[in-house]
Amino acid sequence: MMNLELANKLTENLEEAAFLVAEQKSTKKAHSKIIDCLLLVNQIKTNETSPKVVLENIENDEVKKNAEVRKVRSRLESWIRKPEQCNSRILNAFLELRREGNLSVTENDLQNKIGPNTWFKTNFAQMRNFAERNHGKIFHKEGSIITIWEPVLDLVNNYETRLNLAPSMC
């Protein structure tokens, strides 16, 4: 049984058990329904951690990562032609900070480098998260430190070189 089917069966059993308890009828039947629910939960957990499901999740993650890298490649081509775009300005500010010797760039460092604006937070968030309609995942944030997301590091270094800047080797 697939997880959706199991979840539907679980919901059905929980509803029946809840009605039995609410009506204060047949505690033995309610108990039986609750045990059935616990067994379904265990079955769902087992399905989620089966080697097949784990492998499918790894494959899905790899597909998503590759799609994101393709998106970034395309975005960088656009940003190099349009350095006034918000995303270009954020990435260029990061690269400038790195060239200046700042090896621990934070979100505040970036925002200060760019100056006061209303667009930084939303655009930066879209540059560090996976989403179908993001600007392309460029950054990785660990605590307060920002780095270039490893799968796009070579693309960003190439972008930096094409801007006629000495690469900072993020």
Helix content: 55-70%
Order of helices and strands: HHHHHHEEH
Alpha-carbon Rg, integer: 25 Å
Q: Roughly how many Å apart are the termini?
A: 47 Å
Q: Give the low-confidence spans.
A: none
Given helix and strand content, the structural type is mainly alpha
Q: For the report, how would you describe the main beta sheet?
A: 2 strands, antiparallel
Strand order of the largest sheet: 1-2
The tally of strands reads: 2
* Overall geometry: elongated
Into which percentage range does the β-strand content fall? under 5%
* Mean pLDDT reading: 82
Descriptive tags:
2 strands; single chain; 170 residues; 2 domains; 7 helices; mainly alpha; two-stranded antiparallel ribbon
If you had to describe this structure to a student in words, what would you say it looks like?
- By secondary structure, the protein is mostly helical.
- It has 2 domains: 3-49; 70-162.
- The chain is 66% helix and 5% strand.
- The protein is built from 7 helices and 2 strands.
- The protein has helices at 3-22, 27-48, 51-81, 86-99, 107-114, 120-126, 153-162; strands at 139-142, 145-148.
- A two-stranded antiparallel ribbon has the order 1-2.
- A hairpin with a 2-residue loop joins strand 1 and strand 2.
- Helix 1 runs antiparallel to helix 2 (27-48), helix 3 packs parallel to helix 7 and helix 4 crosses helix 5 (107-114).
- The longest helix has 31 residues, at 51-81.
- The chain is elongated and about 80 Å long.
- The mean pLDDT is 82.
